[in-house]
């Protein structure tokens, strides 16, 4: 029995070594504090442990999720025995990520200078409503994004002037933020409850000798819809994708329960990159994630990959799936139909926005679109910003 | 702390649970440090069974809280017994007690319904508290739980703070349908539970089905292992393996290759979705059985 940990345990340097190990794990993306160092010392002290036993104990204490659990052994070996690779990064959902800044130029080429950043003055959604009824919370709620009404009705592929492009992008972002804002507000002004609050009712009844004259009600707050967005960024979508990306960023950035993916030749999860506030970092991350941007699309394969790896976690009974794609697919229609079928089993609602649908003579006759139609709950145009704004009621309900 | 002794894996075997070393260490550590243990893994790897086995081994109560969407404090921690309260108000009124006295009476511990979490804190002998499928509960509930798991006390506004009589052994399980909060993860020890390797699955088969033919058991373990490597919607768990082995034994199948048609029909024990049943054709079955 090899006993590497125990003999050194008595000597003070061991504590420092252990602190070093915790630091080593932290460098590799584990979320650990000083408390864990003390804990780590405690779990290996005392007993004569074999190396394997000590490793298992530490793994149990220091790993917090599957990825960490699976990488722990290699990191342990690397630190205590100097074997293997030392530095790897674990992908931690919902966490800050730092990436090589040099990569950002890549994304710029595709999307223009400010494409991936939030428009600077878009601090909040801007809503206007007739007669200021909004303040009383009784607005009929027509969503009117502030300016540039004409721009909103122009087919986005005709927007070529750089200034107009920037304005349209900003508008797309604002629209999405406004939708998000309105939906969350709608839940706050929910009507009186439907369930009797027995606890309060009984308390109140005490004053009346136990007669429950004044009833107390309660309502479970509506839980928000969970949103999963797929954005097709293939070559055929290039006139639209930059605006859609802003739209998606606006939705996902504000929507607590949401997830976003890019679809081209493969599937890329971009939720964290879109939530990144720092525009430089966001661009860098998107640049790394969007290799292959502008090529052909394999919708079926991409969605199948989603089903296999993300669906269980990303979808629940309140999910709305939003696909932004023109349906020009280089993969097989059967694969697409199969993937959508499985997707539809988990998600109650599937919305497909197709920019081409706004064109005068367009009919959804491509094989892929035909295969997809049976699974789509709401099929709408998305070639203008107005069309995007019209999405709101679809997202409000399941 | 040697409640469980050094050879926990051995003692788990005695109560019918075959744990791998990683899991045995995790349980040992949870007992030593008195910290909750979070078990993650695919459905059917035996996460819930661990808690049952641990309760049997420690000879203590198993208190189980099954989580679901919408689970709230009233169902998980405590609730007032409203019917009794109403009756008491009426009864006391005859005695002309003041409203204040009645209030003190009906908001006492006698009128408290203990739900699993409070129940677990009220035991003299530390129970095993199983919080099953925590990923199904809402995030707000996770916050409640965090408070209870760090302080082991519950505050009832009308009554004050109820402290734990003993610290329960807490096992949480998750199937990973939702990302759990970092705070909860940091509070817990962690263990990822894999499907058992064939040797361990074989041992489980032998232990649970003592009458099974040794050779058939070996074939079953190997077949299920190969099946789990296929692209399936739902991979068969240990319970499915046991069902299947029992079915094979019951039908008098002695070797997997012997009666292909019969074998194919028994696959309903292992495959629980239509797509999976279609995907595993007789050819696939033959290939897997030959491996």
From TrEMBL, chain A:
Q: Where is this region: Disordered?
A: 113-141
What residue spans carry the Low complexity bias annotation? 128-141
Per its UniProt record, what Pfam families does this chain match?
VWA_CoxE
Q: Organism's domain of life? A: Bacteria
Transmembrane spans: none
Record InterPro entries: UCP010256 (IPR011195), Uncharacterised_CoxE (IPR008912), vWFA_dom_sf (IPR036465)
- State the protein's name: Uncharacterized conserved protein, contains von Willebrand factor type A (VWA) domain
The major lineage groups are: Bacteria, Pseudomonadati, Pseudomonadota, Alphaproteobacteria, Rhodospirillales
TrEMBL record, chain B:
The parts of the chain that form a coiled coil are: none
Every AAA+ ATPase domain range? 33-194
Concerning Pfam families, the annotation shows: AAA_5
Q: Which InterPro entries match?
A: AAA+_ATPase, ATPase_dyneun-rel_AAA, CbbQ/NirQ/NorQ/GpvN, P-loop_NTPase
- What CDD domains does the record point to? AAA
Q: Name one GO molecular function term.
A: ATP hydrolysis activity
Protein name in UniProt: MoxR-like ATPase
Question: What organism does the UniProt record list as the source?
Answer: Tistlia consotensis USBA 355
């Amino acid at each position: 029995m090899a006993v590497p940990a125990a003999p050194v345990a008595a000597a003070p340097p061991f504590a420092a070594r252990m602190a070093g190990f915790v630091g080593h794990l932290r460098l590799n993306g584990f979320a650990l504090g000083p408390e864990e160092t003390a804990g780590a010392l405690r779990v290996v002290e005392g007993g004569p442990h074999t190396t394997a036993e000590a490793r298992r104990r530490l793994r149990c204490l220091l790993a917090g999720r599957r990825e960490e659990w699976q990488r722990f052994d290699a990191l342990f070996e690397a630190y205590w025995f100097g074997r293997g690779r030392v530095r790897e990064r674990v992908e931690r959902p919902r966490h800050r990520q730092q990436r090589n800044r040099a990569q950002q130029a890549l994304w710029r080429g595709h999307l223009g200078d400010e494409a991936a950043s939030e428009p600077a003055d878009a601090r909040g959604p801007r809503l206007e409503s007739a007669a200021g009824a909004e303040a009383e919370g009784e607005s009929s709620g027509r969503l009117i994004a502030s300016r540039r009404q004409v721009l909103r009705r122009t087919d986005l592929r005709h927007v070529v002037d750089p200034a107009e492009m920037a304005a349209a992008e900003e508008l797309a972002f604002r629209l999405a933020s406004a939708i998000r804002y309105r939906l969350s507000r709608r839940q706050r002004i929910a009507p009186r409850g439907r369930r009797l609050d027995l606890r309060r009712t009984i308390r109140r009844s005490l004053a009346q000798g136990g007669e429950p004259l004044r009833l107390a009600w309660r309502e479970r707050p509506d839980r928000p819809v969970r949103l999963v967005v797929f954005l097709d960024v293939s070559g055929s979508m290039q006139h639209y994708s930059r605006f859609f990306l802003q739209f998606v960023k606006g939705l996902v950035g504000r929507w607590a329960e949401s997830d976003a993916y890019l679809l081209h030749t493969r599937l890329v999860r971009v939720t964290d990159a879109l939530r990144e506030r720092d525009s430089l970092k966001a661009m860098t991350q998107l640049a790394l994630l969007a290799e292959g941007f502008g090529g052909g699309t394999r919708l079926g394969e991409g969605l199948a990959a989603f089903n296999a790896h993300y669906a269980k976690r990303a979808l629940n009974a309140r999910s709305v799936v939003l696909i932004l794609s023109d349906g020009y697919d280089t993969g097989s229609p059967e694969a697409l139909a199969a993937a959508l079928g499985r997707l539809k089993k988990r998600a109650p609602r599937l919305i497909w926005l197709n920019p081409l649908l706004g064109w005068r003579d367009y009919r959804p006759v491509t094989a892929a679109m035909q295969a997809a139609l049976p699974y789509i709950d709401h099929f709408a145009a998305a070639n203008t910003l107005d069309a995007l704004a019209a999405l709101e009621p679809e997202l409000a309900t399941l | 702390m040697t409640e469980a002794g050094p050879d926990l894996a051995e003692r788990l075997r005695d109560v019918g649970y075959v744990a791998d070393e990683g899991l045995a260490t995790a349980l040992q550590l949870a007992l030593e440090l008195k910290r909750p243990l979070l078990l993650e893994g695919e459905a059917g790897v035996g996460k819930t069974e661990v808690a049952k086995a641990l309760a049997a081994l420690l000879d203590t109560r198993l208190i189980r809280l099954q989580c679901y969407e919408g689970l709230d404090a009233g169902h998980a921690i405590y609730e007032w017994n409203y019917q009794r309260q109403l009756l008491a108000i009426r009864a006391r009124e005859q005695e002309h007690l003041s409203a204040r006295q009645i209030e003190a009476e009906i908001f006492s511990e006698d009128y408290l319904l203990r739900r699993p979490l409070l129940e677990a804190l009220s035991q003299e002998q530390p129970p095993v508290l199983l919080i099953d499928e925590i990923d199904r509960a809402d995030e707000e509930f996770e916050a409640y739980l965090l408070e209870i798991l760090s302080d082991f006390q519950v505050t009832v506004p009308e009554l004050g703070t109820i402290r734990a009589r003993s610290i329960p052994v807490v096992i949480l399980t998750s199937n990973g349908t939702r990302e759990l909060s970092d705070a909860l993860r940091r509070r817990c020890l962690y263990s990822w539970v894999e499907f058992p390797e064939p040797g361990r699955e074989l041992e489980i088969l032998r232990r649970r089905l003592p009458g099974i033919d040794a050779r058939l058991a070996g074939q079953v373990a190997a077949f299920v292992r190969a099946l789990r490597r296929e692209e399936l919607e739902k991979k068969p768990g240990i319970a499915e393996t046991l069902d299947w082995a029992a079915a094979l034994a019951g039908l008098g199948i002695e070797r997997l290759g012997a009666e292909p048609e019969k074998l194919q029909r028994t696959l309903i024990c292992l495959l629980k979705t239509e797509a999976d049943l279609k995907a595993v054709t007789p050819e696939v079955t033959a290939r897997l059985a030959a491996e």
